[in-house]
Design a protein that fits this description.
There is one protein chain. By secondary structure, this protein is of the alpha+beta class. It has helices at residues 2-55, 61-189, 195-222, 225-229, 232-247, 262-283, 320-331, and strands at residues 250-255, 287-295, 298-305, 335-340, 346-353. Strands 1-2-3-5-4 form a five-stranded mixed beta sheet, with helices on one face. Helix 2 runs antiparallel to helix 3 (195-222). The two termini are 48 Å apart.
């Protein structure tokens, strides 16, 4: 743009120079015409004066004889002056013509330069646009690959959780149950014979019961069995009500059956689980509302609390929980929104495609 502006300024200067040359040419022609007219007028006046003197007899005979040569000398001088002016005018015309030609060439050069600079600018813009489109395409491909990778990692993690839950249930659960049964048999055989051993055996049974309960809790955290056995609605009700009872909160559930793939159901469960964790840590709420329904091929899930809230427009100090929720939902082709204001609670809403609308 700087070079283009310089070229435009140069063209304007050349144009002004050309206009100045035309003005000088006009003034030169005007001065030449005035000079010729003045010379002619002076010569005519001189000749008229000499002739008038001769006719009136004011001059003597010798003077009359000198009139002719005087007039001739004056005419020669006038002719010499005319030739000098003519040569000067011709030289000035030639100089102005050369100047105008140079100015015209300069204008043509400036126009050519401006055209070249404009073309370079257009080519540069086209190149930048092509590079930008390429970067956008590469960014889109990278985003798609990251989304697919994220979905694969989430699926793999859920599969691994399911495998660990099954192993804990089948193997660890069987070992703990077997140990509990063995302890019961030993207790029945030692009845009344060894009080100290019975006391320790009772403690062992209590420890085994606590271990079995802990194992069930771990298994449920890894993969909720109610999701496979009872369905999504009862699983969410159990999740929310157990949390409300543990924290002393009032819960309002409005859950309706929906049509979701099994992989999408676990996403809904994990998102609500993370939302409950955030409420427990930060919200200081007294009531929570949970809704789920299906409309126009989309499943809407909403969780709201009356806690202290936060500024959702500001960048939080730690947003990995919300980021993980968003990534999970978007990996299933859905969208998630978080709306919150200080002192007005928080609303988390997600939309997921129902079965038959996923593409």
């Amino acid at each position: 743009m700087n070079r283009l502006s310089q070229a435009i300024r140069s063209a304007l200067l050349v144009l002004l120079a050309g206009l100045a040359a035309l003005l000088i040419f006009w003034l030169n022609e005007r001065v030449y015409g005035l000079a010729i007219a003045a010379i002619d007028e002076t010569v005519a006046y001189r000749e008229a004066d000499i002739l008038s003197s001769a006719v009136q007899g004011a001059a003597s005979r010798p003077q009359l004889q000198q009139v002719g040569p005087s007039i001739q000398v004056t005419a020669e001088r006038v002719e010499a002056q005319r030739q000098t002016l003519t040569r000067a005018r011709s030289f000035s015309r030639l100089a102005l013509t050369v100047l105008l030609a140079l100015g015209l060439l300069a204008v043509l050069w400036a126009q050519r330069r401006i055209h070249d600079l404009k073309q370079q600018t257009i080519d540069l813009k086209r190149t930048l646009q092509d590079e930008l489109e390429q970067l956008r395409e590469e960014a889109g491909i990278s985003t798609l690959m990251l989304t697919e990778l994220t979905q694969h990692l989430l699926t793999a993690r859920e599969d691994e959780r399911g495998r660990l839950a099954r192993n804990l249930h089948d193997e660890l659960g069987a070992l703990l149950t077997s140990a509990k049964l063995d302890a019961a048999r030993i207790k029945s055989r030692l009845a009344g014979s060894a009080p100290e051993a019975l006391e320790r055996l009772a403690h062992l049974v209590h420890t085994l019961n606590a271990s079995i309960a802990l194992g069930r809790t771990i298994i449920e955290d890894l993969r909720p069995s109610t999701l496979s056995n009872l369905g999504l609605v009862p699983t969410l009700e159990i999740l929310v009500r157990e949390f409300a009872e543990a924290k002393g909160l009032q819960v309002h559930c409005d859950l309706h059956p929906v049509e979701l793939a099994s992989g999408t159901e676990i996403v809904v469960y994990r998102v609500l689980q993370e939302a409950i964790t955030n409420i427990s840590k930060y919200a200081q709420a007294s009531q929570i509302w949970v809704e789920m329904r299906q409309e126009d091929g989309w499943v809407m899930v909403l969780m709201r609390d009356d806690g202290q809230g936060f500024d959702s427009a500001a960048k939080p100090r730690s947003a990995y929980g919300l980021l993980g929720m968003r990534v999970r939902v978007e990996a299933e082709g859905g969208r998630l929104s978080v709306v919150s204001q200080p002192g007005q609670g928080t609303v988390i809403q997600l939309f997921l495609p129902a079965i038959g609308t996923q593409g």
